[in-house]
Design a protein that fits this description.
single chain, two-stranded antiparallel sheet, 4 strands, transmembrane helix, membrane
Length: 268
C-alpha cells in the first residue's frame, strides 16, 4: 500500500521550508545523473552504429560488441564463430551483449540507488524531500524485475571471461607475432576495472559466502568471501570507474577502426 514519504510522511513535523540545508547537496546527484545519462546515450548510439568495432591489424575488439557472432560481423571479429545469420540493418550486432550487460548494470544495487537519487530524486539527498507523493518501493512490475540481478550476474561472469579472451588476442603484432600497443594497455585496464566491479558485487558476495552457518567447515569459500568483502565497500567506485574505462576503450577502438589515427605501438 502506498504511503506518504519525505516531509509529508505521518508523524513528521510539518516544516514549511523545502530544505534547511545550506550546502550544495544537489551537486552529487547532478554529477551522477550527468554521468549515467551520458553513458546511456553513448552506449545506445554505439550499439546501433554497427561499425567501427574491430581493428584487424591489432585484433582489438570493443567490449560493446563482444562477442560478435552474426554473419553481419566484419571478417576476423567473430572469435567464437558465427551463430546467427545476417541481422537486419536496424538490429544491433551486439544485441545479446547489450541485453545481458545492460541487465546486470541496470539491476545493480548501486546503480539502482544512484538512479533513484539522481534521476528520480527519490530522495535527491539526505534531509531533502522527494517530489513524489507516494512510495511503493520496488514491489510492482516492472520494478520487481530488478530482483533478477543475481541471475544477470552469472551472465556478466561469462562475458567477463570472453573479454579476457579478447584481451589475450589483443597481444597481436606484425605477421601474427606478439605485440603490445596503447590499445592493448587500454583494453587490459578496462578488464581490471570490469572484474573489480563484477567481483565486488553484492550478489557475488552472497553467492560466495551466503547461507553458510559455519565458515570453518568451508575454508575455501571463506577465503573467497573475505576477498569479495574487502572489495564490496568500493563497489560504487568500481561501478562508476568502469563506465569511464568502457567508454574509453570503445572510443579508442572506434577511432582506430575509423582511421582517425594509428595505434601507438610499444612492441610488435
Amino acid at each position: 500500500m502506498a504511503t506518504d514519504s519525505g516531509i509529508n510522511s505521518p508523524g513528521r513535523a510539518q516544516v514549511g521550508l523545502k530544505t534547511a540545508r545550506t550546502d550544495r547537496w544537489w551537486l552529487a546527484p547532478l554529477r551522477i545523473g550527468v554521468i549515467l545519462g551520458f553513458f546511456v546515450v553513448y552506449a545506445t548510439i554505439r550499439i546501433f552504429m554497427n561499425k567501427w568495432y574491430w581493428v584487424d591489424e591489432h585484433h582489438y575488439l570493443t567490449p560493446l560488441y563482444s562477442p560478435c557472432v552474426t554473419e553481419s560481423c566484419v571478417p576476423g571479429s567473430s572469435h567464437l564463430g558465427t551463430w546467427f545469420p545476417k541481422f537486419p540493418v536496424f538490429v544491433p550486432f551486439s544485441i545479446i551483449t547489450f541485453a545481458v550487460l545492460a541487465g546486470f548494470r541496470g539491476t545493480c544495487y548501486y546503480y539502482r540507488k544512484a538512479g533513484w537519487r539522481s534521476l528520480l530524486l527519490a530522495p535527491a539527498a539526505c534531509a531533502v524531500p522527494e517530489p513524489h507523493k507516494t512510495y511503493n518501493g520496488e514491489r510492482k512490475f516492472p520494478l520487481t524485475a530488478l530482483n533478477l540481478h543475481r541471475y544477470f550476474f552469472y551472465g556478466a561472469l561469462v562475458f567477463g571471461v570472453l573479454n579476457v579472451y579478447d584481451g589475450v588476442l589483443a597481444f597481436h603484432g606484425k605477421d601474427g607475432g606478439f605485440g603490445i600497443g596503447l590499445g592493448t594497455l587500454i583494453i587490459w585496464i578496462n578488464l581490471v576495472m570490469l572484474w573489480l566491479y563484477t567481483l565486488s558485487c553484492h550478489a557475488c558476495r552472497h553467492i560466495v559466502g551466503g547461507r553458510l552457518k559455519n565458515f570453518s567447515k568451508h575454508p575455501l569459500r571463506y577465503r573467497y568471501w573475505t576477498f569479495v568483502s574487502k572489495l564490496n565497500p568500493k563497489h560504487g567506485t568500481f561501478a562508476m570507474a568502469s563506465l569511464f574505462t568502457v567508454i574509453l576503450t570503445d572510443f579508442y577502438i572506434m577511432a582506430l577502426s575509423a582511421g582517425w589515427f594509428s595505434d601507438l605501438r610499444f612492441l610488435n
